[in-house]
Design a protein that fits this description.
By secondary structure, this protein is an alpha/beta fold. It has a domain of about 190 residues: Rossmann fold. Helices cover about 55% and strands about 5% of the residues. It contains 18 helices and eight strands. The protein has a four-stranded parallel beta sheet with strand order 2-1-3-4, sandwiched between helices. A four-stranded parallel beta sheet has the order 6-5-7-8, with helices on both faces. α7 links the parallel β3 and β4. The chain is globular and about 60 Å long. The chain starts with 13 loop residues before the first helix and ends in an 8-residue tail after the last helix. The chain binds iron/sulfur cluster. Iron/sulfur cluster binds next to α6 and α7.
């Protein structure tokens, strides 16, 4: 039977968003039925935030209030402080891949884009072409860190769906000095006034500053959680910290006190476990540093690492909170300066992927010094050509510090690119030759 063709011109993107809401409601209902000791209040709160945010997208669109498509690191604090609902065009689609047997990824296979383009870029263009996103009033483009990002916006401009949406492109600095952040800060201020003109939303320094203050508190909590992750046994399962803190600070509405409350719950859980000296791996813990973003397949990998090797990931680039500085909100220029620094020098991928390689060397050196890994595993995401060129630097840091390094080639966002079995096999060989012993089958 052939699938009935949808008339795309009739869709405004709320249809797919409603599917997300329905699915998340179903998941929440199932979770609520589990016995009390099996329930995970942090996960339930996080899913509840995603459900509400998607509902808000639909409502905002129907009420004709402004919506922005943007990317992480594009100072979402400004948009939120101005009351402009904003979303990243790939976050929901990627989050739901695991709930739908990768349905969108399979559809992307026949999508006419080169197979070696970063999976994240493919998903973004596919989502726009198929009207799977709530139609925005403005787009805040990301001009970094890779060429694929530039291509996405060109594709948006050429699409029937997003072609008429005005785009603001931030010109990111290459360097990381005071004058660089001032340069980007001036653009962010200009962006706020551009948003006023294009959307009719009002920029009010005090309202944006209040959002920034709340995010300052979220990053402070994040740092405390990472302090806990220095303990052995590590108090939380691998990838848990970034998988919770990243959406709370970048994807869900920035500066939402509900997000801060979830961050506090995670901190409480970590502190409690440190106090009791417990964690998911209770003996012979093999600690791993993962110098890249988290893979979408992190759940299956974490389970396998623990079961087969007593191994756990204690730090990733996405989890690394040390670069985040408190933003001074006592005056407008200081606030834009701090937001600019956060945008081009603190959020992961942009921090390590753009500009001087010293950042990558320093970060890995610090992670090894502070989190005491037994090994470093770099996933080698197929899209990051810039990071692929940095392999020699990773090798040098690890060799100098006496920590074994495994360099893989995977897609962080499509587990089919390098099947998990192959990843597991490579990790097992690597750990064995470095003298670690697996658990018996
Ligand atoms: S994951 Fe890497 S390759 Fe993909 S969009 Fe981000 S920077 Fe570009």
């Amino acid at each position: 039977m052939t699938e009935a063709k949808t008339d795309l011109s009739k869709l405004d993107g709320t249809e797919r968003t409603q599917e997300y809401v329905d699915r998340l409601n179903g998941i929440l209902a199932q979770m609520a039925q589990a016995p009390a000791e099996q329930r995970n209040p942090i996960l339930e709160a996080l899913i509840g935030l995603f459900r509400d945010w998607n509902m808000d997208k639909i409502k905002t669109r129907r009420e004709g209030r402004p919506i922005a498509v943007t990317w992480y690191g594009n100072a979402p604090e400004i948009l939120n402080g101005m009351g402009i609902l904003n979303y990243n065009p790939v976050v929901d689609l990627m989050m739901h891949l695991g709930f739908t047997n990768y349905a969108d990824a399979y559809k992307c296979d026949s999508f006419p884009l080169d197979g070696n383009v970063c999976s994240l870029i493919r998903y973004a263009i596919y989502a726009v072409q198929n009207r799977l996103l709530v139609k925005p009033n403005v787009i805040i483009a990301m001009g970094e860190p890779c060429d694929g990002e530039l291509m996405v916006h060109q594709a948006m401009k050429e699409s029937d769906f997003f072609g008429d949406v005005p785009i603001y492109q931030i010109d990111p600095s290459y360097g990381h000095d005071k004058k660089d952040f001032e340069y980007v800060g001036r653009q962010l201020k200009e962006m706020a006034h551009w948003l006023e003109k294009v959307t009719g939303a009002k920029y009010d320094f005090k309202r944006v500053a209040a959002v920034v203050d709340e995010t300052n508190e979220q990053y402070r909590i994040w740092k405390e959680i990472n302090e806990c992750m220095k303990a052995s046994p590590a108090p939380l399962p691998g990838f848990t910290v970034p998988e919770v803190m990243w959406p709370l600070t970048q994807h869900l509405p920035a500066g939402n006190p509900r997000c801060t409350a979830v961050a506090r719950m995670l901190l409480g859980a970590a502190q409690e476990n440190v106090k009791k000296h417990v964690g998911p791996i209770m003996k012979n813990e093999i600690r791993i540093v993962w110098p890249d973003l988290d893979p979408l397949w992190n759940g299956a990998l974490t389970e396998w690492l623990a079961k087969k090797w007593n191994a756990t990931v204690v730090m990733t680039d996405q989890q690394y909170s040390k670069p985040y500085e408190v933003i001074d909100t006592s005056n407008e220029d200081a606030m834009f300066y701090g937001l600019a620094r956060r945008a081009v020098f603190e959020v992961p991928m942009i921090r390590q992927g753009r500009g001087f390689v010293d950042v990558l060397i320093d970060d890995l050196t610090d992670m090894i010094n502070e989190y005491h890994p037994d090994v470093v595993i770099a996933p080698g995401h197929m899209g990051h050509k810039d990071k692929a060129g940095n392999t020699q630097f990773l090798k040098k840091v690890c060799r100098d510090m006496g920590v074994p390094l495994l360099n893989l080639t995977t897609s962080l966002f499509d587990e089919r690119y390098t099947p998990l079995e192959k990843v597991e096999n490579d990790i097992s060989n690597f750990l064995s030759v470095n003298g670690f012993k697996p658990n018996p089958d």
